[in-house]
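TL;DR need structure tokens for one chain.
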Amino acid sequence: MTNIVEYNRKAWDAQVDKKDRWTVPVGAAEIALARKGEWSVLLTPTTPVPRTWFPDLRGLRLLGLASGGGQQGPLFAAAGAEVTIFDNSPKQLEQDRRVSDAHDLGIRTVQGDMRNLSVFEPDSFDLIFNPCSILFVDTLQPVWEECFRVLRPGGILMTGLLNPLAYQIDEEDLKLKYAEPYSDLHSLPKEKLEAFIEKQEPLLFGHTWTDQLGGQLQAGFSLTHLFEDGWGGNHVFDQYFRAFMATRAVKPN
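>> reply
TL;DR here they are.
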């Protein structure tokens, strides 16, 4: 496996074909409510991001980072934001374009690797919304550095993170099995990895808390808020710990 970005691009295109939960766009009723100011969005599986985390969306330059699928971007646009969606998967971006065209939302879509935002000038955005997706890249610090660069001073980064323990524990026998940092490519036995690839499943990478939280601080951000979340009772881990965290960080003025 020499090109993870290309593999995961095709894998997420396949997830759209399978109608994975994170590829199904919002409908007309949700967009109508968002136009009235009634909306909620997710960074993690179940807990809506507090509305107090957001400034007024009207006229806000918002980047949906690795958030294709037509789930968050159309709501932000309907609420008045100037929305750009950046994603690795062409089919995920097509979901946003289709909803945008149907409802005249003016969403801009750009395909690329979240670790390289060179298509954007410095200080291009007021807010970056990054649902839990950093697990699909093997090196994390470039993501934080690029987010810091393209945000204006005072700009906000919201992102979803995954507890590294969620990768280290074997789901079948609930025993600690894999060392951190976890990687589908290097941690899984050969037969399991081959089965993942055969099914066109996206490859995952577990990042340490140092890389996830410390990496944001190293890039220059100040963390302001966070909360933990689980799978909503649909996963065995919910009995023992919450596997997700959402964070809000600010680029200092």
